[in-house]
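Researcher: Here's the sequence for the chain we discussed earlier.
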Amino acid sequence: MHFWVCRSRWPPVAAAETATRGPDLPNLGTFSGVVSESGTATATFTAGRDGEANVGICGHDCVNFDVTVGTVTESSSSNCERAVFQATRGRTYTVTVRSIAGAGPFNGCWSTTFVSCSVAPPVVIVDNPGVPSGYYNSTSGLTGTPLLLALNDIIDNQRFFGYTRARDSLYAVVDDPDSDDVIADLYTGRAATVNSRQSAAIR
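Model: Thanks. This is the structure I predict for it:
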């Protein structure tokens, strides 16, 4: 009596696919960078699957950045953009972030899943060396009317930009007979329409 032992080769197709597929690739990722005024910055990623993919980028609130992936460019007046395109698994894509207005850091994300990736604008901390240390200390913890009064005191007691200089800079704007301007008093809430030095003086 003879016994034959056979090794199963099932499923042969799956084995062939495993041999040619290569390593697993991620379907989601993030990137970040900095773009200069009117400049560009790039990042790359490798698609984890075939089909629709998307890339999102966001700069801080005071910029206008566009994004390009392959032949797809998304452009608007926003600080955030999202490009949707058809991806090929294993192919490396270059993301180009272009400054239309402004400069600074950006955050980005990419997804080759069936959902859009999430991206938030970067937090930008502005250090203004023109404001002396402690200049706003008297406003700390204040809100509403007390805050407005404290800010008014700071302006009244400042030593560098007198009222005359501020007034003259406003006059340079309103001295246009073809354009009415509205000047608002931040502290009282009053607003007036002016179009000349004369109307500014009486309002």
